[in-house]
UniProtKB/TrEMBL annotation:
It comes from Denticeps clupeoides. The gene is cadm2a. Pfam families: C2-set_2 (PF08205), I-set (PF07679), Ig_3 (PF13927). SUPFAM superfamilies: Immunoglobulin. Residues 370-380 have a biased composition (Low complexity). It is found in: Membrane. This is Ig-like domain-containing protein. Coiled coil: none annotated. Belongs to the nectin family.
Length: 467
């Protein structure tokens, strides 16, 4: 850019001088009045040589300490960028914005570049603000704000344009997949700047994938892969690929696919009774899970058909047996299948007898509760020798047996004493009689016999007295 001074036409106040600038496209801009840097001594004088005036302007501008103030700007592709340049204390010196290609956009309030996307927002001696709408990646770069003092002072602001990533797509999903297959899901997004981040989720829970980034001009293409062996638990699971990027703020881009897995059925029998008894009602349910859904289940008993169709009723996957009896004992089998395979489960039924109610006479007496062994005492007539009568019932059977034996021994002892007393008394009389018979004096013998009889009588009396 060139700065030069040319004279204006003469007016009633004398000759007038104006300062003009020429851009790289040979576009010329001039002050409509005398610039502040031109002293009054030069304003109404005759035209002076350019070199002389330039030296005068430079010497005066060196005393000015004003610098333009700018800020870096970040905008999303397709958005609008506002570029502001300010001067705190400006003495009527013009401001100018130019793009990274050094093309003048605005000189003061004058538009220089014919671009409908660029508009003037505010123009004054202290501020120059312009807007660039529908920003593209090519608009990114360093913009310059110039303050036309002598020398010209500049400040540079960098415009950053964020590339918005495209909505992601999930590839590699083959529906339906078979249980045991290995599949690779791929999520890809392009157009991001800087490179976007891709995250995987399985039913809302984050899982790890493999990320790959490729540059394409100013933007990036990001791809993430997820490898896995599928099983029946993956059937109906939602896999989500989410793209996070600074340009998306709080609303990320994402794509979701629901995986379908086909697998052979699995069968389980559930029953309603734990101890089935005669006369009861019982239901067996054949729970089968498979994809595709298994065909209608098949019920059998002991390897053959159900024997009693009147009492054994099949409805869908349920087998109902009414009024159980002993003939229902056996092994019941449920079988389900689809085109991927067959599975079965078995249940062994044993019907228990109905418990009979015992007659009242046969009912065992209730067990007596343990009595309280704490002695009851009268607070006014306390007698420690008195015990609770119920305590006598606490003796063990051994004590009763010992008491009986002692009573028998005492009774036998008394009987022996009585018999022995009678025996001794009787034999004592006989001895006296024999002794009397051996004496020479017969009368004395008779007397002895009489005495013996008398003694015998006395012995009876003694015995009776003893008793």
């Amino acid at each position: 850019m060139d700065v030069f001074i040319e004279s204006s036409g003469n007016n009633r106040k004398g000759y007038r001088t104006k300062v003009c600038t020429t851009s790289s496209h040979s576009t010329r801009f001039c002050f409509s009045q005398y610039p502040a840097c031109v002293p009054p001594s030069l304003r109404y004088s005759r035209p002076l040589p350019l070199s002389h005036i330039s030296l005068s302007l430079s010497s005066l501008a060196g005393s000015q300490g004003q610098f333009p103030i700018v800020q870096n700007v970040t905008v999303t592709e397709g958005g609008t960028a506002n570029m502001t340049c300010r001067v705190e204390h400006n003495d009527n010196t013009s401001l100018q914005w130019s793009n990274p290609a050094q093309q003048t956009l605005f000189f003061g309030d004058k538009k220089a570049l014919r671009d409908n996307r660029i508009e003037l927002v505010r123009a004054s001696w202290q501020e120059l603000t312009i807007s660039i709408s529908e920003v593209t990646l090519s608009d990114e770069g360093q913009y310059t704000c110039s303050l036309f003092t002598m020398p010209v002072k500049t400040a540079k602001a960098f415009l950053t344009v964020l590339g918005v990533p495209e909505k992601p797509e999930i590839n590699g999903l083959t529906n339906p997949a078979m249980e045991g297959d290995q599949i690779t899901l791929t999520c890809m997004t392009s157009g991001s700047k800087p490179a976007a981040d891709i995250r995987w989720f399985r039913n809302g829970k984050e899982i790890k994938g493999y990320k790959e980034v490729n540059a394409s001009g100013k933007t990036f293409t990001v791809k993430s892969s997820l490898q896995m062996h599928v099983d029946r638990d993956d059937d109906g699971v939602a896999y989500t690929c989410r793209v996070d990027h600074v340009s998306l703020a709080t609303i990320p881009q994402q794509a979701t696919e629901v995986l379908e897995v086909q697998y052979a059925p699995r069968v389980q029998i559930k029953h309603t009774l734990t101890f089935p008894q005669e006369g009861q009602y019982m239901k067996l349910e054949c729970v089968s899970r498979g994809n595709p859904s298994p065909d209608p289940v098949l019920w059998t008993k002991d390897g053959g058909e159900l024997p009693d169709r009147d009492r054994m009723i099949v409805e869908g996957r349920e087998l109902t047996i009414t009024s159980l009896n002993k003939t229902d004992n056996g092994t019941y089998r449920c079988e389900a299948s689809n085109h991927l395979g067959t599975d079965h489960d078995e249940y062994k039924l044993f019907v228990y007898d109905v418990p009979t109610t015992p007659s009242p006479s046969a009912t065992p007496p209730p067990q007596p509760s343990l009595p309280d062994t704490t002695p009851l005492t009268d607070p006014q007539h306390s007698n420690p020798a008195v015990t609770d009568p119920s305590a006598l019932e606490q003796h063990s059977p051994d004590h009763a047996l010992i008491g009986g034996v002692v009573a028998v021994v005492v009774f036998v002892t008394l009987c022996l004493i009585i018999v022995l007393g009678r025996y001794l008394a009787r034999h004592k009389g006989t001895y006296l009689t024999n002794e009397a018979k051996g004496a020479d004096d017969a009368p004395d013998a008779d007397t002895a016999i009489i005495n013996a009889e008398g003694n015998h009588a006395h012995a009876e009396e003694k015995k009776e007295y003893f008793i």
